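User: Structure please.
Assistant: Input sequence and predicted structure:
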Amino acid sequence: MSAERVEIPLVNPNEPEALLAAIQVQEKEHVQAGAPLFTLETTKSTLEVVAEIEGFVLGLQAETGQTVQAGDLFCYLAASADWQPPTRVVAQPAEASSPSIDLPAQLRITQPALQLARAHNLDLNDLPVDTLVTEKIVRSRLESPPNPRQAGAPPSQPFDPTAILIYGGGGHGKSLIELLQVLGAYRIVGVIDDSLPVGSSILGIPVLGGSVRLEELHASGVHLAVNAVGGIGNINARLGVFAKLAEAGFACPVVVHPTAWIEPSAELAPGVQVLPLAYVGSAARLGFGCIVNTGAIISHDCQIGEYANLSPGATLAGGVILGPRTLVGMRATLNLAVQVGAGARIGNGATVKSDVPAGGVVPAGSIWPRD
């Protein structure tokens, strides 16, 4: 073999993603075995990766500050500087909406669905804002336009407004089961989980099967669901559940535990989950699918991006801005008006005094910025 692949290692079994904090080599550089290649950071640890063999660095794939996945290619170590690495193919995002399109407020729509809607001159204001709009939803609108008095409601009938599914039977699922039970406003039909045996139960709620059951259940009149996959180790797992629910036509309501306090001026988008003893302050705005876990505090004027996850006891001072898909660990503290970029991760017990870039990692127990 004329070259050896150097891949991103799994630093933490619970975190397949890591921040590429530093790169110590450059393209075509000759390195000795044991020489440092790059440094990874997660919410809990830092790892310096070294060369296992002598060779030339070729086909370098990443840049400093990039979020990488375990198993991703970093580079090749080749015996000769003339060795040619395989051609790199860059995938284009499939779900990105065109930035030139003026979309209605809060509408979330895939690019294929948007193209279909525009091709048929469908009024985008008739599309629901409580879910991700897919091609299937657009086609259902074209075949059966919504009743103006029920715009945004799933079109299939009969519809039981109290029936709801729990997608995910893990720890977060148990919390949501008991949250919904204490609310008393919903009838939990069952748990959807691809890894649990049909007929088993979670806190007395039956496991109905995996995602293949969604369309059948929707046709039976169950149109509401809560996403009980927290996505702490892999946010893509949580996003995938939202996509499956949207494709099957489910809407995700806001659920708030009775012991939590939400100020009247706060705005909570669909899919937001607020657990016991949490606080959401005045004029705060929470995007689609956020989790505000037990005892978390979101002070006045904070803006929380979609899919953000605040762990138990996290505290945000006034005016904090969290980008989409951010994770704030347990007992972490963010100071006044701090801005955190998309996909950043704040470790447990960290104190953040200044802005964190997109994809950044603040290690557990540390103070940011570091000296």
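The longest strand covers residues 17-23.
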